[in-house]
Each structure stands twice: as structure tokens, then as C-alpha cells.
Amino acid sequence: MKHLLPVLTVVIALLAVWYIACIPMNVKEVLTTAERAGVPIDPPSAAERRDMGHLALVLRNTDALGGSWSQDRARLPSPHQITAELWKSTWEEEVNGRRGIVRSGSLSNRSLIYHGWITLSDTFVGFLIGAGLGVLLAVGIVHSRVMDMSVMPWAIISQTIPIVALAPMIIVVLYSVGINGLIPKAIISAYLSFFPVVVGMVKGLRAPDHMQLDLLKTYNATKSQTFWKLRLPSSVPYLFTSLKIGIAASLVGAIVGELPVQRGGLGARMLGGSYYGQTEQIWAALFVAAGMAALLVWLIGWLEKRTLTRMGMLT
Question: Which of 49, 118, 182, 185 is the most exposed place for a label (fewest CB within 10 A)?
């Protein structure tokens, strides 16, 4: 309860701000609908309203704003509209829909569960590739001066390339050599996730101070023994911290990779919503993506706690 009250307070405040923001964001569409219903609007000309600011229209038509929270194809849908879309795109679609799992035996391609599963698969595969590559690069960077001077700058430079511009290029190149489906999206996902792991792991492997390294030298420890008994255990907290960042970045990469492919996934769902002006569909997919990211980060945190407890770093 001590933690629940502050969280609820923040959530209620955000919902209040959201509902208030819906009024000026949707005011022009609301006034157009009210005008068609015969409600007097100020100013009466649609051309004049088009050139006016949103806040001015709200102040001059306070009695005609009742539809701000239930507008079809709203610029900013209200929270209850998004909740209704989430319910319709999950439970209703799968249980009562013609293509749902209850009637067809497989997930409906109109369901957020179906698209979320595709994105989760891309994320998981890309994260494994990116994290594995990041750990290997970090080990090489720490043990090789040549790799430190050559690979690390390129790893940094690679993150300056906009992923939105790079994703279509990767997909086109891989498609031209016959590679399509999950792999191109996983590679884009791995591209965003490997860098945080590299940086965190390098920091962790270099965490032992000179006194600890000198102590192992006095024991005549080899580089391999130093790595397994000192550097690697010291890097575990840094690794898990970077994995939390990497898994979230991997999810973003998977969604971006789905945009040019348009064959399922939350990215394709968002793009389809933008094509047809279905903003509720876009926001619902965003909330599912946010929930997936929170769940994945929590899972990494849970593994971190159990691992550090077994290593004696936590009690």
C-alpha cells in the first residue's frame, strides 16, 4: 500500500491530463460534427475555424464539446476508447471473432495477441543475437588493444545511423539473397540491442581494480583464470543492467523492422492504423508494446536478483 498510493496518484493525474488534452486536440472535428447536427458554432465558417487555434475554438464553443471523448478517428483518442479497442482486439476477436482461436483453432491475424506474438518472437531472437555478439565483442575489446582501438569506435559510429533509414536497406539486401521472414527483423533488433551490452560488459569486465588484478598475479593466475574468477563475476551486475536496456531497444528494433515488411507484428499494426486513420488501433498497439517492454525488463530484473543472490552479492 505504501507504494500503491503514489503510483495510483500518478496514474489518475495522467488520465486527467489526457482527458483534458483530448478537448483541444479533437476540437475541430468535434465542431464539424456538431455543425452537421445543427448546433450553432462560433465562428460558423469552416474556413475560419481551420485558421484558428485549438484553444481559441475551445473557449468560444464550450457548450459544443461533449463529443471530444467519443470522436471517431480522433486525433487523440480518449483512454476509454483505447481500452475498448484493446478489449475488442484481444478477447472479443479471439473468443467471438470468426478468425479467432476459439472458432478457427489459431490466432486471428486481426488480433493484437497474434501481432504481439510476432513482435515478441522477433525481439527474442534479435536480443539473443545482439546480446551474444555484444558479450563476445566486449571480451575481445577488454583483452585486445587492437580491438579496443578499432572495433569500439565503429560500434559507437554504428549507433549514429538512423534505424528508420537502415531497416529498409537491411530488409531489401537480405531479401535479394533469399533471406526473409523473421531473420531480417531479428537482425535489425540485434543492431539496436548489441551496443548497450557492449558498453555495459566492457565497463563490468574492467571493474576490478589494480589491487585485485595484482593479487591474482601474485597467485600466478593465467588470463583465463583471471577472466573466469574475477572479471566475469565482477561484470554480472553491469551485464544485467545493460541487458535491461538492450531488451527494450531490441523491442523497438523489432517494431521498426516490421514497418517495411508489413506482414504482421505491432509495427505493421501501427502502420495499418495510420493508413486508415484508426488512431485507437495505433494507441492500442503502443500500449501492448509498452506492456511487453515492461514485462521483459521485469523478467531480466527477476533473473538478475536470483543470479546475484546465488552469487552472494544480494541477501
Answer: 182
- Measured between alpha carbons, how far is 59 from 249 in angstroms, rounded to an integer? 42
Q: What is the pLDDT of residue 152?
A: 84
What is the helix (H) or strand (E) element at residue 149, kind and residue range?
helix 145-158
pLDDT at 97: 87
- pLDDT at residue 119, rounded to an integer: 95
Distances from the Cα of 153 to the Cαs of 8, 135, 199, in angstroms?
44, 16, 11
pLDDT exceeds cutoff 70 at 1: no
Specify whether the CB–CB gap between 193 and 242 falls below 8 A: no
Which of 236, 232, 238 is CA-nearest to residue 143?
A: 232
> Nearest-CA neighbor of 156 among 194, 195, 206, 204?
195
What is the C-alpha separation between 279 and 275, in angstroms, rounded?
10
Please state the separation of Cα 251 from the chain's center in Å. Answer: 5
**Confidence (pLDDT) at 312:** 83
**Strand, coil or helix: what is 159?**
coil
